[in-house]
Amino acid sequence: MNCQKIIEIAYQQVKEMPSEGAIATYIPELATVDSDYFGVCLTTNKGEQYTYGDAMIPFSIQSIAKVLSLSFAISLVGEDIWKRIDVEPSGSAFNSLVQLESENGIPRNPLINAGAIVICDILSSHLKNPKTALLEYIQKVANNSEITYCPSIAQSEKDTGYRNYALINFLKSFGNIKNDVDQVIDLYFHLCSVKMNCCQLAQTFGYLANKGKQPQTGQQIVSPSQSKRINAIMQTCGFYDEAGEFAYKVGLPGKSGVGGGIAAILPNQYAISVWSPKLNARGNSFRGMKFLELFTDATQDTVF
Ligand code: DON
How far apart are CA 111 and CA 234, in angstroms? Predict the structure, then answer.
């Protein structure tokens, strides 16, 4: 297949569609981004890279980073993390509180806010300086020491994070937060503030297309079995109440963020990222979803 051509055709088709959706404004700092940006990058396990559009502009990867905190926790603690979080799709919005009440403070999965907050608590219990260690871990996975937290986004999340404060206190009331709530939520806000461009993001997710091994450095980030499990969680839980739609239309394990980014992988072949800030009604990038649907329709190569 001529990958570059397929990317360009799908991109132009999406660009010509009416620009639907709305940029996330509940974190004020996210609302400052030009909503017309649209970038794509695909990196193969063999090291080829294909880019188009605004692929070099850094953006807030938001919840996409929850895959990286999950990886870190799995590599530190192993299967024991599942005593405190489940692996089932929630079918609810990413910041929902409702299931926690009837499910005794056990979040449905590590990719919704409640689950990612418990992961941040697990990291806090196992690391001396969790904020630094998490960033160093992300830099290792990305093979890029320039990746950083964005202080203004982390602060903006903190200033407006009423639901996340509600979630962490609710989790604490069930005994599923072991550390100080302010420290854990600070780690969570920093996790969500990580910035990358599309090429850095595709490169970061390469290990999940490569049985857990970073394609450029050859470092084993997680074991092949852990990589399989993380991909399964992305497939079933990566898009909240739109996970079924993404599996149906795109057919790749992936993860979205309210910054408008999506990262997805085809096992043993490639990682792809797309970024366009306007979100559909379920909080996923409108153009990102459409682009990936057209892309995998054209390549005819998915996990299904
Ligand atoms: O907790 C929040 O509201 C954000 N920091 C993360 C949201 C996010 O990206 C969820 N995703 N689609």
Answer: 8
* Sheet containing 254-256, strands listed edge to edge, beginning at the edge strand earlier in sequence: 49-53, 39-44, 270-275, 261-266, 254-256
For residue 279, what pLDDT is reported?
96
In this prediction, residue 1 has a pLDDT band, given cuts at 50, 70 and 90, of low
Detail the DSSP E strand segments found in the chain.
39-44, 49-53, 59-60, 195-196, 254-256, 261-266, 270-275
| C-alpha distances in Å from residue 190, one per residue of 28, 102, 151 | 16, 29, 8
| Model pLDDT, residue 3 | 96
Rounded mean pLDDT of 163-181?
Answer: 98
Contact 61 CB / ligand 1 (< 6 Å):
no
pLDDT at 291: 98
Q: Which pLDDT tens digit goes with each residue over 261-302? A: 999 999 999 999 999 999 999 999 999 999 999 999 999 999
pLDDT (0 to 100) of residue 76: 96
Report which ligand 1 atom has the smallest distance to the Cα of 113. Answer: 1
What burial class does residue 260 get, using C-beta atoms within 10 Å of its C-beta: 0-12 exposed, 13-18 middle, 19+ buried? buried
Give the span between the Cα atoms of 251 and 266, in whole angstroms: 9
CA of 218 to the centre of ligand 1 (A): 31
Rounded percentage of the chain residues whose pLDDT exceeds 70: 100
C-alpha distances (whole Å) from 195 to each of 71, 117, 242, 259, 289 are: 18, 19, 24, 10, 20
HSE toward the beta carbon, residue 259, CA cutoff 13 A: 30
Handedness of CA 163, 151, 65, 242 (dihedral sign): positive
Going from the Cα of 62 to the center of ligand 1, the distance in angstroms, rounded, reads 6
C-alpha 275/C-alpha 284 separation (Å) is 10
Which numbered atom of ligand 1 lies nearest the CA of 284?
12
Quick check: 140 pLDDT over 90? yes
